[in-house]
Amino acid sequence: MDASKPVKKIKDAVEKAVTPGDRIPGSPGSGTPSLAEPTTPIEPLPPKSEQDAPETVTPTGAETGAPKVSKSQQGAYLTTSQGARLRDTDHSLKAGTRGPTLLQDHHFREKISHFDHERIPERVVHARGAGAHGTFTAYGTASEITKAGFLAKGKETQVFVRFSTVLGSRGSADTVRDTRGFATKFYTDEGTFDLIGNNIPVFFIQDAIKFPDIIHAGKWHPDREIPQAQSAHDTFWDFVSLHTEAQHHTIWNMSDRGIPRSYRHMEGFGVHTFRLINEAGETVLAKFHWKPKLGVHSLDWEEAQLAGGVDPDFHRRDLYDSIEAGAFPEWELGLQVFPDTEDETFAGIDLLDPTKIVPEELAPVQPVGKLVLNGVPTNFHAEVEQVAFVLGHLPPGIDVTNDPLLQGRLFSYLDTQLTRLGGPNHSQIPINRPHAPVNDMLRDGFHQHAVHGGVAPYRPNSLDGGNPSTTDTGFLDIPVRVAESTKVRENPVSFDDHFSQVRLFWRSMSPVEKEHIIRAYTFELAKCYEQAIKERQVQCLANIDPVLCEQVATGLGLPVPKPTVPFDDAEVEASPVLSQVGGEWPADGRLIGIVVDPAAGLDGVEEVRTAIFAAGMVPLVIAPHGGVVDGVTVQRTFATARSIEFDAILLAGAPAPAPDALPARDAKAGTPSSPAVDPRVTLLVEEAWRHAKAIGAWGAGVTVLEQTGIAGTPGVVAADAGATALTELQALLAKHRVWQRFPATVA
Ligand code: HDE
User: Most buried of the four, 215, 258, 468, 601, by CB within 10 Å?
Assistant: First the structure.
């Protein structure tokens, strides 16, 4: 990261965010006259055709360039959709001031009717999401194995990425326990490449035909449409306990991977094995991985639940705030590469089985390029809602394998857009337009935007000069031999192993991560009503690990069953790279809350803020009330600050209870008490401590540590000066959490 620029941008963004009035002409202190409406007419909008002209590429042409800039709301005069200027848009046309509205009011009808149709169907899965623009730059390291041009050394390609949860509706909370989608559209010169992955490297099912089953089980119950965005209910556990190939994906969901800290802190996986081909016609098999620059980090479960209520947009906000602040999210794209052997296995692992990983210790992930997200959407609907990822969008050099899950997805993604985006011309929507020249012979249909010339959209033709023609440099379906076989509805025998890699995952976890997994299973199953379902899942756990099974069964008050699938310990090794604990990572964009006490003054606070900005992080000052205190702008008040927002807390004072604080109670006496520190500050600190966050204090702030009883515990820093407290806090943040604070009852 460029050392100076992002810091300044972060600072600017924070300053802007705290005084939004400054950005609104006419608001107090903005320096502009107070106006209800703009009075200086600016140039009227250009004709609609020009407003809509694709500045990137035409549906049939090759003009690439800067992304289209919307001109909405910039012209002086309000018009109808047809460009007729309007005198009034606030009153409908009526038969007298007290009379009924007239059907004749065409402006009213256009306005209301368009509004009535503003929504489109949400995605059948992955409905809730957020998207961003960025650039992918290739290292050139993949050029020997694939001829895909966007992977050639130094090549820069524009991308659009959409992150999502799977189960919830569009308005559901970001921080639920779920798989996350990580879909990337590369606008390559050779045609669009959509890499549609998840943050979990395996899937619930091995065959696409079962997708409706797992999704019907995971989504809400059909009678009452509850629960929303949850796997903690009977139908989900009914399915995964009966359908044991789902157990691998399920343990990833129950681990901390199911509740990411942010989209910036997630890995991404293409899941399936793909086949790559180089210029010489040689092929390899490969799996795609995204590795985040900031490491893989998660929320604490209680923190995730609180965030669901306090800030349901937690992940969206983090993505957009970090981009606007200049702390651009970054990932490296990497490949695991395997020889293209006839049996399509590697180290005994069937590469066509999407419920299996290949441990990175056996096949290291080789970096092939870098993704930087540096642009927020201009319009959520136009871009994030209308982006259509389609698995068959492949450039020359990348092809599919016979993975039966992948094969089914090749149908579903194109098909679903017909309903969602209303017809077959969704590739002409600006966000979906390829940046490569398009010269197809697809014609007509709903929402056709192109005015195609010519008379012969067919081949062969002589009337349009025989154009367009095909070329040997085009997309190549790699001529893989398909074994002579009989039509069957069966899986290969190798797909029958449903437990060895679940055991591998469990054994790769650190004690604290195992503890979290135990708690997650216990929580989710305790939310089920059917005893038989709980027992069946506990039986599955017996086939994964005796300690896991025993602890969950105890938590549920159930007997501990014996395994029914034999353990072959020799085959099961750990993959340490799967653990999130250990290692140190950049803390870019982390949020540090600074609690101040205006009554005692803000000594040292400004210096600490400057040092936090300089470290690429974001300080947010928390005070009893808003405004400016001792020259320092307050960003959060005790009423608006909740622990979930902050990665660490610094206490610069010990503020006494403010008048608007809820009365605290002396728990033993049951009577109101008069605490020395505002109870909202105490709650903030207690929650941050419980969620294993770093906490520092200096000066009077140290007394808060004492009063909450956390002084001297791991990850709690009492210092003489703010600078010292911050330095120690930074060292703790690099490890993400103060892991020692979580109880570790399993080895
Ligand atoms: Fe998807 N999936 N999926 N999926 N999927 C969709 O396509 C489907 C699967 C993934 O941000 C849908 O445009 C089937 C695996 C992401 O717009 C739909 C099967 C993986 C997104 C669909 C799978 C994914 C989707 C719904 C089993 C990880 C969000 C809306 C064969 C590798 C894309 C849409 C976005 C979305 C079908 C399994 C990832 C219905 C049939 C495995 C990230 O087409």
Answer: 258
Query: Could you tell me the fold of the domain covering 591-741?
Result: Rossmann fold (3.40.50)
How many A from CA of 289 to the centre of ligand 1? 17
Q: Read out DSSP for 356-414?
A: ----TTTSPPEEEEEEEEEE--S-HIIIIIT----TT---TTEE----HHHHHHHHHHH
Cis amide leading into 38 (omega within 30): no
Q: Which of 361, 208, 226, 201 is nearest to 287 (CA)?
A: 201
What is the rounded average pLDDT for all residues in the chain?
Answer: 90
Structure tokens that stand for 6 in this block:
């992002």
Indicate which atom in ligand 1 lies nearest the CA of residue 181. 43
- 3-class SS shares of the chain: helix, strand, coil, % to 5: 30, 15, 50
List CB contacts of 464: < 8 A, sequence separation 6 or more. 454, 455, 456
pLDDT in tens, 262-321: 999 999 999 999 999 999 999 999 999 999 999 999 999 999 999 999 999 999 999 999
Comparison of pLDDT for 28 and 741, the residue scoring more = 741
Contact 265, 330 (CB under 8 A): no
If DSSP codes are grouped into helix, strand and coil, which group holds residue 666? strand
Instruction: For residue 411, give the ligand 1 atom closest to its CA.
Output: 41
Distance 125 CA to ligand 1 centre (A): 7
- In sequence order, what are the beta bridge partners of 531? none
- Contacts of residue 471, defined as CB under 8 A and 6 or more positions apart, other chains included, come to none
Helices and strands per DSSP (H, E), number in the chain: 18, 22
Interval 66-86 mean pLDDT: 73
Q: How much distance in Å is there from the Cα of 247 to the middle of ligand 1?
A: 19
Query: Probe ligand 1: pick from 357, 413, 419, max atoms within 8 Å of CB?
Result: 413
Confidence check: pLDDT of 71 > 60: no
Model confidence pLDDT, tens digit, residues 215-232: 999 999 999 999 999 999
Return the higher-pLDDT residue of 702 and 666.
702
Domain boundaries, the chain: 129-432, 499-578, 591-741
Q: Which residues line ligand 1 (CB under 6 A)?
A: 123-126, 129, 162, 164, 181, 183, 196-198, 203, 208, 211, 271, 387-389, 405, 408-409, 412-413, 416
Residues contacting 715, CB < 8 A, separation 6+: 692, 693, 694, 695, 732, 738, 740, 741
Find the mean pLDDT for residues 520-549: 98
Q: What's the pLDDT tens digit per position in 96-146?
A: 999 999 999 999 999 999 999 999 999 999 999 999 999 999 999 999 999
Q: What CATH number does the domain located at 129-432 have?
A: 2.40.180.10
Residue of the CA atom closest to atom 42 of ligand 1? 203
CATH architecture of the domain covering 499-578: Up-down Bundle (1.20)
Whether the ipTM is more than 0.90: the answer is: yes
**Backbone torsions φ then ψ of 23, nearest 5 degrees:** -90, -10
Its pTM stands at: 0.92
Least Cα distance to 621 among 597, 599, 588, 590 occurs for: 597
